């Protein structure tokens, strides 16, 4: 999976006698586990502006040596041990981490993540000789790629210098005795995307020594590690700029994930992306976008309003790095903020009264648990654009004209979020 892919080799290379801080890609104290691209300076972006991020395409990065693409799903989510038991009634252990490897395939008919094998993660000694995270798990056999299509077994693994981790106990890797009679529909998206927060330095207070800034773990008003599968090709993200130049970043690529990300990860994979950045100046913003304090994800059919247990944990907590144990692991708080954010969006953007907005939300908006993983839990409010259709219809206000039964024959042109908000501001 790694050998032959120069980009991945560069990321995980760990030479002999190097520490986590001196290896090719350092692992700094207090940092998150994500590989990210950025920060990128966006010309002209100033605090108070909104950055419009259009994701034009996402494609799987195949290993050039094998022409295969793989993804990894870990089962170590923080929510499960605190709230559930195993199927046999025993307690779920937070110390047991397991992994399932998927081969991800796509063709003109669609894409699937097909499970290949799974195992329980063993303790590992890095090439530096110490027990450190971030090093390669030393498998004796390559269970992912056979020598040929007709081979009955799998290839032995030969680790080159720089990838020579060892097990730190006599216990061998325990492989899953699983049937793996299923496949997962591919749903490629970016788990982490956003702008640099102006208050990132506050994260250092109370964080581990050597922490350089806000970790990539917790999402917030600036976007970040939202893990919302709707942030895929064709989607647009809106976030308020907090520093000159925005400091745009993206990464944490996924091949598929369900709402809640219940096991702790998605199918973590490697993607190539094409995106377009547009600065929306503060002076020209629609009312709903002014002083934007939460991320908005727009798709062809929906407006997705994001809420978190803490909308702004960097300012709300004295020790932001402790967000997970300071109230961040709360679906109730995330739901409350998702509702408040959606209501504020409707009141400001569409001139609604409080109770009017509440009625719309209760009857027409779907709330979902985005993730219970990222220290600051997330809930989203999914608003159908059809609610604000420009088609003619019965009733008062902007919906005047023929009976709604006649609308089936009408064709409506797609309308983006900014156009929709401006149309209502003119009414």
Automatic annotation (TrEMBL):
Domain of life: Eukaryota
SUPFAM superfamilies tied to this protein: Acetamidase/Formamidase-like (SSF141130)
A UniProt-annotated Pfam family: FmdA_AmdA
Annotated protein name in UniProt: Acetamidase/formamidase
Organism: Klebsormidium nitens
One Gene Ontology MF term: hydrolase activity, acting on carbon-nitrogen (but not peptide) bonds, in linear amides
Gene3D superfamilies found in the cross-reference section: Acetamidase/Formamidase-like domains
Signal peptide: none
InterPro entries membership: FmdA_AmdA (IPR004304)
């Amino acid at each position: 999976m790694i050998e032959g892919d120069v980009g991945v080799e560069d990321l995980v290379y760990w030479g002999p006698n190097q520490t986590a801080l001196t290896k090719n890609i350092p692992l700094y104290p207090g940092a998150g586990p994500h590989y990210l691209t950025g920060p990128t300076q966006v010309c002209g972006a100033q605090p108070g502006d909104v950055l419009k991020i259009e994701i034009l395409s996402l494609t799987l990065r195949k290993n050039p040596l094998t022409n295969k693409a793989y993804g990894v799903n870990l089962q170590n989510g923080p929510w499960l041990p605190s709230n559930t038991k195993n199927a046999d009634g025993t307690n779920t252990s937070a110390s047991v981490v397991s992994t399932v490897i998927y081969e991800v395939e796509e063709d003109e008919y669609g894409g699937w993540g097909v499970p290949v094998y799974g195992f329980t993660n063993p303790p590992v000694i890095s090439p530096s000789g110490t027990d450190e995270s971030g090093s390669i798990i030393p498998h004796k056999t390559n269970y992912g790629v056979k020598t040929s299509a007709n081979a009955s077994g799998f290839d032995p693994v030969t680790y080159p210098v720089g990838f020579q981790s060892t097990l730190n106990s006599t216990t061998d890797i325990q492989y899953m005795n699983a049937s793996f009679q299923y496949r997962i529909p591919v749903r490629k998206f970016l788990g982490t995307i956003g702008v640099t927060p102006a208050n990132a330095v506050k994260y250092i207070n109370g964080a581990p020594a050597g922490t350089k800034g806000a970790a990539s773990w917790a999402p917030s008003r600036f976007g970040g590690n939202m893990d919302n599968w709707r942030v895929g090709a064709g989607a647009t993200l809106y976030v308020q700029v907090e520093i000159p130049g925005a400091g745009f970043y993206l990464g944490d690529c996924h091949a598929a994930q369900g709402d809640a990300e219940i096991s702790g990860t998605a199918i973590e994979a490697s993607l190539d992306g094409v995106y377009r950045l547009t600065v929306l100046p503060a002076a020209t913003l629609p009312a709903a976008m002014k002083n934007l304090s939460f991320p908005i994800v727009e798709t062809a059919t929906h407006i997705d309003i994001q809420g978190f247990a803490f909308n702004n944990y960097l300012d709300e907590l004295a020790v932001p790095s402790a967000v997970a144990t300071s109230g961040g692991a709360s679906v109730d708080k995330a739901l409350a903020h998702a509702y408040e954010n959606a209501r504020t969006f409707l009141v400001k953007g569409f001139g609604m009264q409080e109770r009017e907005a509440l009625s719309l939300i209760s009857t027409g908006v779907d709330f979902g648990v985005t993730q219970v993983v990222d220290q600051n839990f997330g809930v989203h409010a999914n608003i159908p654009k059809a609610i604000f259709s420009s088609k003619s219809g019965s009733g008062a206000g902007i919906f005047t004209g023929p009976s709604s039964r006649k609308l089936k024959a009408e064709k409506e042109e797609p309308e983006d979020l900014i156009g929709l908000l401006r149309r209502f501001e003119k009414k």
